[in-house]
Design a protein that fits this description.
Elements (H helix, E strand, L loop, with lengths): L1 E6 L2 E5 L7 E2 L9 H16 L2 E2 L8 E3 L5 E5 L6 E2 L6 H12 L4 H9 L4 H8 L9 H5 L5 H14 L17
Antiparallel strand pairs: 1-2, 1-6, 3-5, 4-7, 5-6
Helix pairs in contact: 1-3, 2-4, 3-6, 4-6
């Protein structure tokens, strides 16, 4: 059993999850809108390193409230180089995974601030049950289609203009 994560642009391996990281399953309440954008950047670090975390499944993903991200691997598996087509299949699965705990428009809007239209368009090609990991398809809700529709609309809208001002999000104090 191992946890793999990116730290300062380098892939790291640990026998236990880094301090503060929790499994996404059972901790979906951590996924607030600003965190979704940070998690997208954490996921993009894998792409920039030319690596794939393998088939995404909710029980393999560990997160923290600062956007830390790690993937759980068995002793027989480890990160692999990206396919020759790039991050597209992994990104499609990533969007579906996040959408299971956060509104679709937030997941896609935050993705648009990280990846360009060509990358998002490439992911759109893999947003079907034939290409998504089975573990995602069996984890409720059945959301791949709504993610595909939202991503298609975002790609059709083209490149974002300007930076996010976070005006739509205000954290509530308890």
């Amino acid at each position: 059993m191992a946890f793999w994560f990116m730290q300062d642009g380098a892939l790291q391996r640990a026998a236990h999850p880094p301090t503060g990281l929790k499994p996404l399953i059972g901790n979906g309440h951590l996924l607030l809108p600003p965190l979704i954008g940070t998690l997208h950047y954490s996921f993009q670090a894998w792409e920039q390193a030319g690596l794939s975390p393998g088939p995404l499944a909710p029980d393999r993903v560990w997160v923290d409230a600062r956007g830390g991200l790690a993937f759980h691997f068995t002793d027989q598996t480890h990160p692999q180089p990206l396919l020759h087509i790039g991050v597209a299949p992994d990104l499609a699965a990533w969007l579906v995974l996040l959408d299971k705990w956060m509104e679709t428009f937030v997941v896609v809007a935050r993705a648009r601030t990280v990846w360009g239209v060509p990358t998002l368009g490439g992911a759109l090609s893999f947003l079907t049950p034939a290409f998504l990991p089975q573990a995602l398809l069996h984890q409720p809700p059945d959301n791949w289609e709504r993610v595909a529709v939202a991503l298609a609309q975002a790609v059709a809208d083209g490149t974002l203009r300007g930076a996010s001002q976070e005006r739509h999000w205000q954290e509530r104090l308890a």
